[in-house]
Amino acid sequence: MIIRLASLLFAVVLVSVGLFEQSLALVALSSAVVMLALLGVCGDEQPERGQPWRLLLDRTSWTVPAPSSTALTAAAMALGFCLLSIGLASPTTLSILSALCWLLAIAAVVALGPLLDGISVADIRNALRAAASRDHRPEIGTVLVMTLVAFALRVYHLDTVPLMMHGDEGIVGRMGLKILNGQLAPLLAVDAEWPQAYLYTYMVALSMWLFGTDVFGLRLLGVFFGALGVPVVYAIGRVGWGAPAGALAAWLYVVSHLQNHYSRLGTFVIESVPLITLTLFLLALAHERGRPRDGAEVAVVAPTETNRRGIWTLLLLAGLTCGFAQYFYYGSRVIPVIAAPLLLMLWQARRINVWQAAAFGFGFIVIFAPLGAHFLEFPARFSGRLSEVSVFQDSYARQILGDGATLPGALPALLAEQVRRSLNLFIRAGDQGGFYSGNTPNFDVVTAALVWLGLGAALSRPRRYHEASVLLWFSLGLLFSSVLTLGAISGQRILIMTPAAFLFGGVLLARVWELLRVWPVGRVEWLAVPAGTTVALWLLAANVTTYFYEYNSRGELAEQAEVAREIAHDAGVYHVYFLTSPAFDPNHDAIRFIARGVPATNLKAAADFTPPPSDGQGIKLIVLDNHTADFRAIAAQLPAGEERRVNAGNGRLMFTVYTVPPAR
Fold first, then answer.
1. β-strand partners of 577
2. What is the CA angle 35-338-219, rounded to 5?
3. What sign for the dihedral angle of Cα 593, 597, 598, 600?
4. Considering the domain boundaries, does residue 610 fall inside one?
């Protein structure tokens, strides 16, 4: 016992030094020490004897269940409406009917689960009442408070935090405006030029219709999705390791400035995060609900053994969630890759049978089929930019390893460097993907330490389903989202697997508590609340300071958005001229969204300037620092103007505005 505790303390020292020195070797060593220290701590929990894999070839494993006629009708309706949605999708004039059939197919799948499980409406009502009972209200209240905190952190000054507006946000906003202006597109298709499903565009349009056709209305959709991730992260942590573990993981998600930032962007990235978490939560719940009954046969799970436990419902809902996620960010395509081995693990552990695993696929196909059919018709829209961001390019290998590097010979060295870069994103590296800041570490020091120490805790018990699922989530997510993509430096690409990293913190808490249970900890249990509260408040303060005070005050990449706000404020009062090339010009998508309808002339040099006609409007000249000489030459022609410097919060010059007032 003393050796274990001493090893854990040594691991804390190692990870602290490793984070300070930004040493991947030291933080990895700390994970290894924790793994060794916690081996056998839960030795009383024996792994259950699973089915041999050869039974997949046994006829008894494929015994077809005998569902009710009502369930068969629901399945047929789901399949029929799904096929109708595909058939009606191609003619744009019938796209509304296609979308309606799609929704009816989804509703049929939702109804199918309880029918297969033999669950009545009364059963569902009683289960909801039990979940909302007085015994559970403190827990529900705690999760609700965390969700509200997450929403508040993400909605505060949403229109100007972040100060920047990425060009992708401008494109998304302008596409949403087209829909609001009556230029409708097929709901279940993908735009030919911008690789996103129109379903997301319609959701953005709805948000702007409800909350305003400005930056706030554009960004609010991501805020809702980001905040909805909190209860799901808590739930998966609670199912796997208990309420304290779920609470810690959820709080790390709540305060994370990385999650906060991407929830505030009007792009289709954050939506995939709660959806992958919900998918894996439903599978985790199936693992718990599908425990074999006493006396059940070890070799084969009977098709009816898990009836009335909700297994069919959980698997169908998981498939639907996984399929729905495909309508958002490219990273969602890793979800079925992660789910596939987990389904095999559930079968092998006798928690589900083959047909229940197939139910996951059925739910996925029904909701994804219209989009899948569209991809079959237009394959380039499926691949999108995947070929452009893949590491399997000779030019990229030469960029990383030197001029003599060629593939496939350089592949091992290239992948090793990609792994190093990807793991550094969880040490003190920043997001250099162009959507955030490379000057801000992705995680605060406490969160990073919990991730690395928790990784060791998970590795100490990898055969247990919940640890295996979070390890698969982390490793496969990191592989496909970062290791195999250019640079391995992008925060938006690792976003989909960061909840797994936060869950590592919950795993660590649960395992260390298991270790301490054999000690007389009753005398110090009172320390749990004040210590936990102190850490929680420090995490909140650290991330708020990092994001709202340090990052936002630097105004990184914010020149375009601030220029747009500048010229939109006085729209119609001035003739606007830009001296901002090559950084940007009036056609930048953020400018076209924020300052839409405001005409502006792009100048590459002073010689391009021609005084506007005398129509009573003034002149507003926007100048970047690299055009100082051109600015002075133009200002000499307009002596009545006033020069004003626009600075970021930290005093950095962003641009200069030269204004000649309108004629009176």
1. 601, 621
2. 105
3. positive
4. yes
- Do 422 and 507 reside in the same domain of the chain? yes
Cα–Cα distance, 219 to 160 (Å, whole number): 11
The arithmetic mean of pLDDT across residues 623-648, rounded, is 95
Contact in structure between 314 and 278 (CB atoms under 8 Å)? no
Strands 653-660 and 642-647, by their bridges, are: antiparallel
Q: Which of 264, 248, 331 is nearest to 551 (CA)?
A: 264
Q: Does 452 reside within a domain?
A: yes
Rounded to 5 degrees, φ, ψ at 540 are -65, -50
Tell me if 585 is assigned to some domain: yes
pTM: 0.94
Question: How many structural domains are present in the chain?
Answer: 3
Supply 490's token pair.
């992008």
Amino acid at 151: F
Q: Name the 3-class secondary structure at 598.
A: coil
Q: Which residues contact 212 (CB under 8 A, 6 or more apart)?
A: none
Which CB contacts under 8 angstroms, 24+ apart, belong to 277-280?
A: 277/229, 277/232, 277/233, 277/236, 277/499, 278/232, 278/321, 279/318, 279/321, 279/322, 279/325, 279/335, 279/339, 280/236, 280/338, 280/339, 280/342, 280/469, 280/473
Residue 35 lies inside a defined structural domain of this protein? yes
**How far apart, in Å, are the Cα atoms of 288 and each of 198, 274, 283, 285, 345?**
37, 21, 9, 5, 13
Please indicate, yes or no, whether residues 396 and 510 belong to a single structural domain of this protein: yes
600-614 pLDDT, tens digit each: 999 999 999 999 998
The β-bridge partners of 656 are 623, 645
Cα distance between residue 504 and residue 474, in whole Å = 9
Residue 170, classed as helix, strand or coil, is helix
Q: Which two tokens stand for residue 232?
A: 């799901």
Which amino acid is it at 483?
Answer: V
Which two tokens mark 159?
A: 């229109």
Nearest to 662 by CA among 618, 598, 611: 618
Quick one: 211 and 146 in the same domain? Answer: yes
pLDDT at 296 over 70: no
**Residues near 342 by beta carbon (within 8 Å), at least 6 away in sequence:** 280, 283, 465, 468, 469, 472
Q: What is the pLDDT of residues 34-62, one digit of tens each?
A: 999 998 776 545 555 667 767 777 666 67
Q: Are 45 and 241 in contact (CB under 8 A)?
A: no
Same-domain check for residues 569 and 515: no
Q: Which amino acid is at 624?
A: L
Residue numbers of the domain that contains 20: 1-39+389-519
| DSSP string for residues in 242-298 | -HHHHHHHHHHHHH-HHHHHHHTSSSSSTTHHHHHHHHHHHHHHHHHHTPPPTT--S
242 and 178 share one domain: yes
Examine the domain organization and report whether 140 and 230 are in the same domain: yes
CA atoms within 13 A on the CB side of 558: 24
